[in-house]
Amino acid sequence: MKNIPEKPATTKKEDRKTSIMQTALKLFSTEGFYTTTMPSIAKTLGMSVGNFYNYFASKDQLAKELMLYISTVLGDKLREINMTDVSVKEKVTMIVHMYFSIARERPELIEYFLRVFLSNREIFTKECTGMVCVSGFVTELMLFFDEGVQSGELKDQDFFSALGLFMGYLGGMVFLNGEEVLTKPLNEYETAIAENIYNALRKQ
Amino acid sequence: MKPRLKVLWLQGVTCNGNTHSFLNYPHLSYVLETFEFLYHSLLPSTYTLEEISTCVHECDILIFEGAYDPRMERVGTSLETLVSYYGSHAKYVIAAGSCASFGGMFKHSDPEHITGLGFDEKEPKGPLASSPKLINLSGCPIHPEWMGYTLRMIADNKPIAVDELRRPKELYSYLAHHGCTRNEYFEWKVDSDHFGTKEGCLFYKQGCRGPMTHASCNKILWNDVSSKTRVGTPCFGCTEPDFPRINMFETKTNMSIPQDVPVGISKRSYLTMAGIAKSFHIPRLEKRLIDDDA
What we know:
Chain A is mainly alpha-helical. Chain A is built from ten helices and no strands. Chain A is globular, with a radius of gyration of 19 Å. The mean pLDDT of chain A is 92. Chain B is α/β, with parallel strands linked by helices. The interface between A and B is medium-sized, with 24 and 15 residues.
């Protein structure tokens, strides 16, 4: 029987880093950015504070890497949808479903974006300016809109007008869901919201 | 003394732009010493067009300017007959300009019948389609140095490597973007709101095709000093088979996203890079280059 080779040290460190980020995301999105401290994250993980700093040199660096991580996760999902050979209308439905599924299964990803990234801009102005930390996701949205116009399904308009309509709507619904003011589970809104978004974006 | 190579410069459907451009070649005296022009509409020639139209002479190099319409006649002889006769006897056939290369501007007046000598836009078509003797010098007009280079290579009996559109690699492997003095503005995504200014990149709003156009305009400068992009005019992509496109002073966008991106770069890669670069504000690049009021 062959010995299973041990994971290289660098992979182990990356795995540990990812698990730290997942814990940090949960804490930041539930407790708030300023209430959550580096020692409190280390404590939750059962790590010494000193060791914790081996992974992230500062809270600001951790905050930035978390946003990059979220953008990559969402961007990868959106990329899969972009690569699917279906109509733009169907893709709108798929994007809404994907976003609400993540909000349900990994709420910390969306909550961090809404309640930390968007609400505490002072943390992100230096190294996360503009598209720097969200390009993975925004690039895929650009490709989606570009394809939509080229195919003749969507009307040509300013990118940010379309982006705000699409993502503002989805983010708003997740926010309301988080505040527990919606009368139905989030997934029950998917069909109506996808239809609304498509009707608002489509070429008349 | 080595006998001079015989050149025949024939014209199809043309505006004479390539002829006029070539007259600016600084080494025209070398050309006239090295080559015998059997016929050229402006340069001293051995024969008249009437004598050429009889198809009894032979040339080493046929230079054809203008789009190819087989039905068009020169002194009673169709271009079909003239190109067939001289094209089959010549060792080299040079298509001078985008009309002769791909159909160009004049193809649009009669797309069914008018083509280039060997291509209809990028599809092989025409009397010299797939001919190994064809050399395309696309451009509207051609740079005089491009013709000068090609003639010198032939005179020196040196091989001319060509690309898939039969353009000399030495001249057309570059992009018009290479050597553009606005490249720093391109890198940091600082747009120019007007053409004719020294500052800003012309790619985002002004329709510049430099990053998609194979041409050495910013390497071999025009009149030795300048180029379109250097004076603030967008590159119109005049060396490419799809020239002329419409709305050449506008960048085609879909929801503010450029429809075409630099050649050989995926749109995903380009948008990722562009989005990040655009996130930063570089005050130096947002100011006038030379501010007389400062």
